[in-house]
Amino acid sequence: MESPASGSTTDMKKIISANLSKVKERIAEAAERVGRDPNEVKLIAVTKSVGLDAIRALLELGQTSLGENRVQQLVQRAGIISEQLSRMPILLHGRQLPEPDWHMIGHLQRNKVKQLLPVVGLIHSVDNLRLVEEINNRAQKLNKVQDILIEVNCSGEPQKFGLPVAAVGHFIDQISSLNFVRVRGLMTMAAMTDDPETTRPTFERLYEVFLETKMEFRLGKEFEHLSMGMSQDYQIAVESGATIVRIGTALFEGIPRQDND
């Protein structure tokens, strides 16, 4: 696998382990502050800015849910890691490392759906009818039911992707007849800010939309996820009801980054 730019792989793993423990502790503290079970919150490690050695370290530490912003990088990395796991007896506590659970968290274009679907577990960023129809058609050819989240623009920023809050119900109604997509919940991105507390209204609004949508359309247990919160605001997101947080920077503090542009 790729080598870090400086320091040993062992040192890098120690740094990531400490960061991972800190993030998990803060998730637990945030959940407990509002009377939630910390086990209700899934951590997605966003690996776009680190190399394959860092991903290997995460897998060895038991962090198997990984997120990428770009289809090409996700597909490439999924292929490399799957091939390496298949030919090398990489063990964790006497058992072979599991395959990563890949999440597509960035904006998705229709022309990238075909290459993404064979490897992705959950797509977080679905926000238009033509995209979800393409996902459904490609999933049907794979005989796969693809899990998706609907991206909602709760912050109201014009530069952000996502459906307007008022359009979520109509969108759910439009795609209800599609047999090869399964809506698992909602996703949002808060505004970038130096004060994490200012993101709370965005997250609380998504939670309200989630409850309203679930009740209005009588959605079952499968509609369960709220993907919201990143390194700068994930504790606020957990307090506001997040079931998935997407963490990159906080996990990789102190290790070299790579430029993926």
Low-confidence stretches: 1-7
Number of distinct helices: 8
Number of strands: 10
* Outline: globular
Strand order of the largest sheet: 9-8-7-6-5-2-1-10
Would you write up a description of this structure?
This protein is α/β, with parallel strands linked by helices. It has one domain (9-251): TIM Barrel (Alpha-Beta Barrel). The chain has helices at 9-33, 52-60, 71-87, 113-116, 129-141, 168-175, 200-216, 234-239, and strands spanning 42-46, 65-68, 91-92, 95-96, 101-104, 122-126, 146-151, 181-187, 225-227, 244-247. It has an 8-stranded parallel β-sheet with strand order 9-8-7-6-5-2-1-10. Strands 3-4 form a two-stranded antiparallel ribbon.
Which SSEs are present, and which pair or pack?
Layout: H1 9-33, E1 42-46, H2 52-60, E2 65-68, H3 71-87, E3 91-92, E4 95-96, E5 101-104, H4 113-116, E6 122-126, H5 129-141, E7 146-151, H6 168-175, E8 181-187, H7 200-216, E9 225-227, H8 234-239, E10 244-247
Parallel strand pairs: 1-2, 1-10, 2-5, 5-6, 6-7, 7-8, 8-9
Antiparallel strand pairs: 3-4
Can you tag this structure with a few keywords?
alpha/beta; globular
Quick overview:
This protein is α/β, with parallel strands linked by helices.
